[in-house]
Specification:
CATH class of the largest domain: Mainly Alpha
Oligomer: single chain
CATH architecture of the largest domain: Orthogonal Bundle
Order of helices and strands: HHEHHEEH
Helix content: over 70%
Number of domains: 2
CATH topology of the largest domain: Arc Repressor Mutant, subunit A
Radius of gyration: 29 Å
Strand content: 5-15%
Shape: elongated
Largest sheet: 3 strands, antiparallel
Number of helices: 5
Distance between the termini: 88 Å
Structural class: mainly alpha
Length: about 130
């Protein structure tokens, strides 16, 4: 399964968020996911299996429990792949920020001019109203 297919599921993304806080027992993950998504224990187990088989999560036995954790290597590989595209977005977001700043500056200038024009008009009215 492709990494984006794995991470495209909101349940699996939430499981990874839980595991990012540290190792979790399968029971703990199941309880949280069942409460938040209303899915069955076998469905949660299936999501854990997909994460494990795709390399995004690791599992280790501890007595009768199974402890799951995030595999940072898989996320680093994905991050490295995405990094190729960040430059494109960084440039576009920088350009957008420049345009937004320019628009704010132009609005401030226009408001200041309108305020000055309004003040000048009031002064002219006051001078013509005086006998």
């Amino acid at each position: 399964m492709h990494a984006f297919d794995v991470l495209g599921d909101p349940v699996r993304r939430r499981i990874l968020e839980l595991l990012a806080d540290g190792e979790q027992t399968s029971g703990s993950v199941t309880a949280t996911i069942r409460a938040e998504f209303g899915i069955s224990q076998p469905a949660v187990s299936q999501h854990l299996r997909v994460l494990r088989e795709s390399g995004f999560a690791t599992v280790r036995p501890e007595g009768t429990r199974r402890l799951y954790a995030v595999n940072p290597g898989a996320l680093q590989e994905l991050d490295a792949w995405l990094n190729r595209f960040r430059g494109m977005w960084d440039q576009r977001l920088d350009a957008l920020a420049t345009e937004l700043a320019r628009g704010k500056r132009e609005r401030r200038i226009a408001q200041a001019r309108a305020s000055e024009t309004g003040s000048a008009a009031n002064i002219d009215r006051e001078e013509t109203d005086t006998p």
